[in-house]
């Protein structure tokens, strides 16, 4: 890499046309200054193609300056060998002199006219200047590139990084969605199955592989900090949270400068009214608790309209809800419409299609039964799949391809994922048992409202000192009152969690509750009943009961979650004859909602909610009789719905949501890909080579911190006060103080990139006992610069081509592999170093040229293989999508265009791939 990268201080200012490179994203190639003002500079990277705006004071940029003797290219492809350079008005002009005397010609090239596709190299210049690295550094460089290349090719890339247990159903959903060109889907797993984890996994994989950069997470205000903490702690993803500061101080430009943002729906509405999001583009938008956004035919809420406008400008969209039927068919359609407005354009058409869809579900049941299809069933199936799948595949046992064809062509297609506990139990996942304990309160003469409950709470807290207990009720005012009474009258250590507390106070209290030595009782208003994870608690007190069974299940779901380590007890205190007693009977006798997650509750609640509230608000002597009658009717209706659910279960949704065989395959693949022992060995070798201090904490964990002995000024992702890390996934799940170190961790990926993109180890000299001079040239074959969103690494990660030559140019590559060669090498003596300095530069340049020719021959084969893989894979996907498009509207033109553009873009990048000399090793006879 024959160039010099100067720091920004070498030039007084940025000037239009200057060349710079990004230290943070070297893969962008050469950048050109296009605009600049007092605070910022706009750099265009034409080869990527990308444009970045940087703050001048903090920009990770380096000035690019080529040296005398280097060959550069113009935009038009003309070569120029640099004899000298001049600076004119802060722009570099490279000059080549040809000829002598009067016939002398001068050619010059301004840096602003440099080809952005030019590859930057330097090992030969460093060798000729005597700037050699230790052999150990050279070895680290080669090992780093081998490991990095393997990671680039690995299907596990982006999947092993999260600090989460490998549940096959979560892996399946995350892998399916993150593998799509347009990752748009509705995640609607039952409460407690990990929708947030699935969404985080999808984001992590897409961000790690570079397929997305700009992410907007929209969540209820109460969940903002939880999202921030989960994404940072579990996925090593940092986000900007404008809600944590005054929105009045937030500028429109802030959103353009921030790549990852978490914002509340309430704040989004305010900022949108100010035009803050009008021009902002996002690669992915995630909306939590999506059922809160209202829509009816011809009547969309303001929030819905904002989301609709944002979703139309975003390639990716994830909507999360645990209650897909909570708002009925209209609410479900509204969310699907955000995901695919072309496919779900008309509510009336959707209702009619939904009615006809039941026939498809019945056919699916027949296919899955294993019995031979009846004549009318086979005829119906052939009619539905004619032209969509080879009819000879309609055999038993049923092939998954037939079921996927039905999913592709009918119903909601592959955009809707909903896993249930019944399905997840296939994974041998266990859920906690739920036990109900009712407590009839004793009211005393002169008691004010809530006194009986506070006395019971105080007694309960004293008898459950060793157990974490969560109380949920509907009112923040009640929480505030009860907390005050329990603290002042009973000296109990309790904390509160409600919407009237600032976000930081809420999270501080939640952390205090989670701390084993902290508060044992947390009093929460309804905001603790959605999205929050309190599974470290085993006792749940429902101080009042909601009428809606879905809201009740949300409350219970804060403890009843996958991964809960103990059974949970649900306590319902009530006063005899009061509404709590009636609601207790409503949930228990109609839905059996306390012992197990109920199904089919939305329709029953919708039908009887007005009558129920009339009874609860009434004081007539017939109240109990009317209530008993309501229970009888509601229970009968619920039983009928359960029968309909079981006989008409949406098998296609279940099939789309989880394939047990694929889920297990992913589990095994990721478990194998972790290679924790190899990672620890490599990382410790790098740390030792760079002089970074580390010490063992236990067999699985180490502590790393910067120090005075470091050979580098900065080590990626290493905090100033150090980091405690473990290579054990199991240990990381039980120890929040330990970071999980994987091949996806920023410390590992950024360290590998740093080594690959800097000079460390790219030239070295060694000795051996044989009477031969050898050189080993390591060339890198890589596509021309292309936006990482096209995911070129899937087919063509950078490839290393090693060539070994003797002093005569004889090719000894097959004889001396690196593994064999390094076993023969030793450090060079003083005399050997003197001999190395006497090697003529022209002779060495000639040998490297010969090595380049040999590497180029092999590169043509690798280039052809990459093109074939690309054309085969993308061609099959395009064929499938175009076939679907001809049959119905399940596939959008945007998705087909994306795959077509990807194919064309990558074909061009692969065809224009080039070799660059990455490292050079000169081996001399031992003296």
Describe the structure.
The chain is α/β, with parallel strands linked by helices. It is about 40% helix and about 20% strand. The protein is built from 29 helices and 33 strands. A six-stranded antiparallel beta sheet has the order 1-6-2-3-4-5, with no helix packed on it. α24 links the parallel β28 (about 725) and β29 (about 740). α2 runs antiparallel to α23 (about 675-690), α3 (about 170-180) crosses α4 and α3 packs across α22.
Sketch the major β-sheet.
6 strands, antiparallel
Query: Order of strands in the sheet with the most strands?
Result: 1-6-2-3-4-5
Number of helices: 29
- The total strand number stands at 33
* N- and C-termini, Cα separation: 31 Å
Determine Rg (CA atoms, Å). 33 Å
- Shape from CA axes? elongated
- Round the mean pLDDT to the nearest integer and report it: 84
Low-confidence stretches: 1-12
Helix content: 40-55%
How much of the polypeptide forms β-strand, as a percent range?
15-25%
Class based on secondary structure composition and strand pairing: alpha/beta
Quaternary class: single chain
Which tags fit this structure?
41% helix; six-stranded antiparallel β-sheet; alpha/beta; six-stranded parallel β-sheet; elongated; 18% strand; 927 residues
């Amino acid at each position: 890499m024959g160039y010099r990268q100067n720091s920004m201080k070498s030039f007084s200012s940025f000037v239009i046309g200057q060349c710079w490179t990004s230290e943070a994203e070297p893969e962008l190639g050469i950048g050109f200054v296009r605009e600049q003002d007092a605070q910022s500079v706009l750099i265009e990277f034409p080869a990527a193609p990308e444009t970045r705006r940087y703050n001048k004071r903090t920009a990770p940029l380096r000035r690019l300056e080529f040296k005398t003797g280097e060959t550069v290219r113009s935009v038009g492809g003309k070569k120029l060998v640099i004899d000298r350079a001049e600076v004119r008005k802060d722009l570099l002009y490279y000059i080549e002199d040809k000829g002598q005397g009067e016939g002398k010609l001068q050619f010059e090239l301004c840096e602003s006219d440099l080809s952005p596709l030019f590859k930057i190299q330097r090992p030969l210049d460093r060798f000729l200047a005597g700037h050699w690295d230790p052999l150990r550094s050279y070895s680290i460089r080669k090992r780093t590139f081998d490991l990095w290349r393997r990671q680039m090719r690995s299907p596990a890339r982006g999947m092993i990084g999260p600090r989460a247990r490998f549940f096959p159903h979560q892996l399946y959903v995350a892998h399916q969605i993150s593998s799509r060109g347009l990752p748009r889907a509705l995640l609607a797993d039952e409460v407690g199955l990990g929708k947030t984890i699935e969404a985080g996994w999808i984001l992590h994989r897409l961000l790690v592989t570079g397929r997305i950069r700009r992410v907007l997470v929209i969540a209820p205000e109460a969940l903002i900090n939880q999202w921030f903490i989960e994404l940072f702690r579990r996925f090593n993803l940092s986000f900007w949270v404008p809600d944590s500061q005054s929105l009045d101080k937030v500028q429109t430009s802030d959103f353009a400068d921030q790549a990852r943002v978490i914002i509340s729906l309430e704040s989004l509405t305010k900022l949108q009214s100010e035009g803050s999001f009008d021009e902002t583009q996002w690669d992915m938008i995630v909306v939590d608790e999506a059922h809160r956004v209202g829509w009816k035919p011809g009547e969309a809420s303001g929030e819905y309209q904002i989301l609709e406008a944002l979703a139309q400008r975003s390639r990716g969209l994830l909507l999360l809800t645990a209650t897909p039927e909570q708002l009925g068919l209209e609410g479900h359609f509204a969310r699907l419409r955000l995901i695919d407005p072309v496919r779900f354009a008309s509510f009336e058409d959707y209702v009619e299609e939904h009615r006809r869809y039941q026939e498809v579900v019945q056919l699916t049941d027949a296919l899955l039964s294993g019995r031979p299809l009846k004549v009318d069933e086979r005829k119906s199936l052939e009619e539905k799949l004619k032209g969509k799948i080879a009819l000879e595949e309609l055999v038993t046992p049923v092939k998954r391809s037939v079921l996927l064809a039905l999913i592709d062509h009918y119903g909601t297609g592959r955009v809707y994922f909903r896993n249930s506990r019944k399905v997840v139990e296939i994974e041998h996942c266990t859920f906690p048992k739920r036990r109900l304990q009712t407590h009839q309160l004793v009211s005393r003469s002169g008691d004010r409202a809530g006194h009986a409950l506070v006395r019971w709470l105080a007694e309960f807290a004293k008898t459950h000192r060793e157990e974490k207990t969560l109380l949920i009720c509907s009112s923040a005012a009640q929480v505030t009152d009860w907390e005050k009474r329990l603290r002042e009258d009973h000296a109990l250590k309790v904390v509160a969690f409600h919407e009237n507390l600032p976000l930081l106070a809420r999270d501080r209290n939640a952390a205090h509750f989670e701390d084993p030595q902290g508060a044992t009782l947390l009093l929460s208003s309804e905001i603790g009943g959605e999205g929050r994870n309190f599974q470290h608690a085993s006792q749940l007190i429902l101080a009042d009961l909601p009428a809606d069974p879905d809201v009740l299940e949300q409350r219970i779901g804060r403890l009843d979650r996958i991964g809960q380590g103990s059974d949970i007890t649900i306590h319902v205190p009530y006063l005899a004859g009061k509404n709590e007693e009636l609601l207790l009977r409503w949930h228990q006798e109609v839905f059996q909602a306390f012992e197990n997650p109920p199904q089919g509750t939305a329709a029953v609640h919708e039908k009887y909610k007005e009558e129920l509230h009339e009874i609860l608000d009434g004081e007539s002597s017939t109240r109990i009789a009317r209530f008993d009658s309501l229970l009888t009717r509601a229970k009968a209706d619920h039983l009928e719905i359960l029968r309909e659910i079981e006989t008409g279960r949406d098998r296609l949704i279940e099939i789309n949501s989880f394939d047990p065989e694929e889920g297990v395959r992913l589990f095994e693949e990721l478990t194998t890909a972790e290679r924790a022992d190899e990672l620890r060995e490599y990382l410790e070798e790098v740390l030792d080579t760079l002089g970074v201090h580390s010490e063992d904490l236990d067999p699985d964990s180490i502590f790393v911190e910067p120090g005075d002995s470091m050979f580098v000024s900065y080590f990626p992702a290493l905090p100033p006060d150090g980091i405690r890390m473990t290579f054990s996934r199991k240990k990381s799940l039980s120890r929040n103080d330990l970071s999980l170190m994987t091949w996806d961790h920023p410390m590992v990926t950024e360290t590998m990139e740093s080594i690959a993109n800097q000079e460390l180890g790219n030239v070295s000299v060694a000795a051996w006992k044989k009477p031969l001079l050898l050189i080993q040239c390591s060339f890198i074959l890589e596509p021309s610069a292309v936006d990482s969103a096209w995911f070129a690494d899937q087919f063509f990660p950078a490839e290393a081509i090693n060539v070994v030559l003797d002093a005569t140019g004889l090719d000894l590559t097959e004889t001396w592999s690196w593994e064999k060669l390094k076993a023969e090498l030793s450090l060079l003596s003083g005399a050997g170093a003197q001999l190395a300095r006497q090697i003529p530069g022209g002779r060495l340049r000639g040998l490297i040229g010969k090595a380049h020719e040999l590497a180029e021959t092999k590169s043509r084969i690798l280039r052809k293989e990459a093109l074939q893989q690309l054309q085969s894979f993308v061609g099959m996907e395009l064929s499938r999508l175009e076939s679907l498009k001809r049959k119905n509207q399940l596939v959008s033109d945007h998705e087909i265009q994306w795959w077509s553009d990807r194919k064309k873009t990558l074909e061009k990048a692969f065809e224009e791939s080039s070799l660059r000399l990455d490292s050079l090793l000169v081996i001399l006879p031992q003296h």
